Amino acid sequence: MFIIRDEVISQADQQLEGYEHIDVVRMSVTECLHRIKENELQDSELVFAMMQGLLKGFIQYK
After folding, report:
1. Over the stretch 14-38, which tens digit does the pLDDT of each residue have?
2. Distance (Å, rounded) from C-alpha 51 to C-alpha 45?
3. Across 49-56, average pLDDT
4. Are 28 and 20 in contact (CB under 8 A)?
């Protein structure tokens, strides 16, 4: 189990399909949640992952 406290501290290489292109953008959890709230980030998988992390206690947010 891991807890995110405002920054993800590990990452792995991407294993993309040939048609996929993903840009990784580093930002704090606080900024990410703010941008979701302001509707600047609208990716449903990102929003779901952040909300599940918060609800299940993996992400601690002040």
Report:
1. 788 889 887 778 888 888 999 999 9
2. 10
3. 91
4. no
Torsion (CA) 34, 35, 38, 39 in degrees, nearest 10: -140
**CA–CA separation, 57 and 33 (whole Å):** 15
**Across the strands, what pairs with 59?**
4
Distance between CA atoms of 35 and 11, rounded to whole angstroms? 22
Predicted pLDDT at 26: 80
Residue 53 parent element (H or E): helix 44-55
End-to-end CA distance of the chain: 20
